[in-house]
Design brief:
The chain is built from twelve helices and 14 strands. By secondary structure, it is an alpha/beta fold. The protein has two domains: about 130 residues, Response regulator (Rossmann fold), CATH 3.40.50; about 200 residues, Methylesterase CheB, C-terminal domain (Rossmann fold, 3-Layer(aba) Sandwich), CATH 3.40.50.180. The protein has a seven-stranded parallel sheet with strand order 8-9-7-6-12-13-14, sandwiched between helices. The chain has a five-stranded parallel sheet with strand order 2-1-3-4-5, sandwiched between helices. Strands 10-11 form a two-stranded antiparallel ribbon. The longest helix has 15 residues. It starts with a strand and ends with a helix.
Length: about 350
């Protein structure tokens, strides 16, 4: 059984989360807590498999609670937040620095047409996170932008003949890796970066703000018909596919979801293949499912350099694992080695 501790200050929401989680026969409720102090006590008493936790709570906030849990009794943490204010959504992403693994919107109420979908997403995420092995994080001072920006030791990668664009796709476990990558790229990075991150609706602006705190490159949510610029990072917005047009302008569409997702990594990668072909680098990061895997193979076949995150550093190895299985990867790299690879392939290329 997967034992879940539910940490939520609202009694109504707490009851809803318990109701949803108990509906799955593989999940049992280890306990509940209404604030951070109760959560720390409950973790020691119940020793749950997974913790679901809000950010904004009376007293200690989710960031501090997550940090203390990961110092004392490392446990997979899923942030379940109703925050839509950009400042609050940025706080949600800061919990990833403390060791939280995933961020979800609070499920819709039982009478909502979105209830079944959001409830299923919560159950699925909790079950997947229960299998993740987390490690103790020792107490340390807060990191600064300078800490994030320290590059890893460069690795010896073949120099690309010409690279005109980088495309990144990620899902569960991806935000932390994208942050690591962007924090290690130089301010003069010479090509645009296009990224699709599967994320709960309403959190994209907070994600961009969080990335901007540690990146030397400007990070922004893409807008329709915007001309892509070298050294800029473009994130797909909520509920829209992002493509690159022949004129290098970004195209946002409401086309049908692909692999059940919108935005879809597959959609982005196909457009990059059509516009840039072998003059691109594509990176597929941690995530459930297979979105982008077949298209990574397409890009490799066109002569592009393709990178998949390795199993050991992935929170969930579904997407990169499928790309590896298909033979779609030039390199399989750990989280820490992807940025050095990009610097070598792009910055040292012709």
């Amino acid at each position: 059984m997967i034992r879940v501790l539910v940490v939520e200050d609202s009694a109504v929401v707490r009851q809803l989360l318990v109701h949803i989680l108990k509906s799955d026969p593989e999940i049992e409720i280890a306990g509940t807590a209404a604030d951070g102090e109760e959560a720390l006590i409950a973790v020691e008493q119940t020793r749950p498999s997974v913790i679901t936790m809000d950010i904004q709570m009376p007293g200690m906030n989710g960031f501090d609670v997550a940090r203390r849990i990961m110092e004392r009794r490392p446990t997979p943490i899923v942030i379940v937040s109703g925050a839509l204010d950009p400042h609050e959504t940025t706080s949600a992403f800061q919990t990833l620095d403390s060791g939280a693994l995933a961020i979800l919107r609070k499920p819709a109420g039982i009478g909502s047409p979105e209830f079944e979908r959001t409830a299923a997403e919560l159950v699925r995420t909790v079950k997947v996170m229960s299998e993740v092995k987390v490690v103790r994080r020792w107490a340390k001072p807060g990191r600064t932008n300078a800490d994030y920006a320290k590059p890893s030791t460069p690795s010896a990668f073949p120099v690309a003949k010409t690279v005109s664009a980088v495309a990144i796709g990620a899902s569960t476990g991806g935000p932390q890796v994208i942050q690591t990558i962007l924090s290690q790229l130089p301010a003069n990075f010479p090509v645009p970066i296009f990224a699709v991150q599967h994320i709960a609706s309403g959190f994209t602006a907070g994600f961009v703000d969080w990335l901007s705190q540690s990146s030397k490159l400007p990070v922004q949510v893409a807008t329709h018909r915007e001309l892509s610029m070298p050294g800029h990072v473009y994130l797909a917005p909520d509920a829209l596919h992002m493509k690159v047009g022949p004129d290098r302008r970004l195209l946002l569409t409401e086309d049908e979801p692909e692999n059940g997702l919108r935005p879809s990594v597959s959609t982005l990668f196909r457009s990059v293949a059509a516009v840039y072909g072998g003059k691109s680098v594509a990176v597929l990061l941690s995530g459930m499912g297979r979105d982008g895997a077949q298209e990574l193979k397409l890009l490799k076949d066109l002569g592009a350099t393709t990178i998949a995150q390795d199993r050991d550093s992935s929170v969930v190895h579904g997407m990169p694992g499928e790309a590896i299985r298909l033979g779609g990867t030039t390199y399989v790299l750990s989280q820490e080695k992807i940025a050095p690879a990009l610097r070598s392939l792009v910055c040292d290329g012709g």
